[in-house]
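I have been asked to look over a protein record a colleague put together. Thanks in advance; the entry in question is below.
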Amino acid sequence: MTFLRSVVGKLWLTIIFLVAFILFILTVMLLEFFENNNITATKNNLTHQAEKIANVLENHPNEQFPLGLEISWEIIDEFTKVVIIKNNQEVYYSPNSEKSVKLSLQDIRNDVEISKVFEEDITVEKVAKLSSKDSGRDTAKYSIIGVPLHMDDEQNGAVFIYQSLEIIQETTHSTTNFILLVAGVAIILTTIFAFFLSSRITAPLIKMREAAFEVARGKFDTKVPILTHDEIGELATAFNQMGRQLKFNMNALSQEKEQLASILSSMADGVITFNRDGTILISNPPADRFLQYWYYEKGGAGSPSEEIPTQVMELFQQSVDTETEQAGEISLQGRHWVILVSPLYSNRFIRGAVAVLRDMTEERVLEKMRKDFIANVSHELRTPISMLQGYSEAIVDDIAESQEEKKEMAKVIYDESLRMGRLVNELLDLARMEAGHIQLTMDEVNLPAFMNRIVHKFQGLARDNEIHLSADLENDIPNILFDPDRIEQVLTNLIDNAIRHTPQGGSVKLHVRNDDFGIKVEVSDSGSGIPEEDLPFVFERFYKADKARTRGRAGTGLGLAIAKNIIDAHHGHISVQSKIGQGTTFAFSLPRK
């Protein structure tokens, strides 16, 4: 079946069918022609023999009649039988008809057509079945020819010559066998020719098919050999040109696809391309993260590719319906996105839309930080300014009567002015640090002497507050390179905070030890601690613990932010650990190099 479905099989069947059909028509026509020709020739031959016998007998009348009979019997062959009717009393049969079917005088007289030779003196022809005298059965058909016989002084006679049609059928059968043999040989030769022709035609086509499969598998360098210079050769040339052009186009498409994928992957904004029915076609990593946020917020039902935010679908539908650009905002998991949806066209018809999602969380956070910064600075400045204004008005209005009261008010004004100065200086320092303009003066420092000096500086403050301040330094701590002034600023801030947040009778400890990174410095207190929810924000600007847990004056809230920037400038790391009622530990590490 595979062979019959192939081009070779189809060509072979087509050629064989055409040749067989032509041979069939030709065979039928030839058989008909030969059969008619044989019958006609046989009838003409029999008629000629009958006329010849009649002529011989007419030329040998009376006493010579027996001689005429002898001559007549010599004229016919073994398959031809003759009946000579001289008159009603004289009927002569050819010798070869003695043991076969005879045409009797009675048969002749009873047959209307044959008897016309006597009545109308004409030559008659007829095909009839003759019965055997022994069995009485019909034997075969015979062709009977009757020719008038004219003897002198005699009534009209006739010469009847007849021959079995089986002879003609045998001749026709032999001719049919010969024609069928010739047709069989022709079909065999045609098959060989068909295979040769179809192979010549289909061999290049088979190679083209194999090459087409190779091209379909991505092997665009596949070439078809050009074996001929006819239409098939031109087809092979066109196929090779098509392969080269296809390779060029595929390379161009691949480059454009890679370029587009690189652009989409490197974009900070999310991009989602929708089909006309809202199906997602393309999305880049930022868009995938957006869908993951949506998927997580919806409880994980379905998959991100199946669940599309309602707001996005509404913008998409509006963009497709109105054929205009649509914009909107959406918030998920504490993040904010601005969405811009634009329709996509194909031959002036909308085939979908593209959504651009910009994560505005950082901008919103920066905006909030800016507002909070302004509010915090205003809040921090309002208190000293109010106190400066109030005490200065009291002095101007002579509310303070004694010199001691005026000095006390002036001291408050002086302290608040110093506080404002510290706040402004710390803000300037923090701004320079965050801008990357911090200047470090690196020096190799002896850590034990450096740490003991700082602890000694705070011993007086600790004694005044009845707090035990101590230092614990490991042995063999090597000298390390850092900016001593900046690190002292960090330690001053941490120890001062620890003392202010530790109640009387508490302790503040300074631990210094080696680790794999470099040195690690820890400032631990036994104070009130920091709430767990506030721990992530202690290094932000203007962060302040609850004032109910502090003793003495409150700070500006910038010290820890400055300390973090200083440690970061040294390529170190600062952290905090705390539990309510158990104390707080600030730790920072400095690298050896």
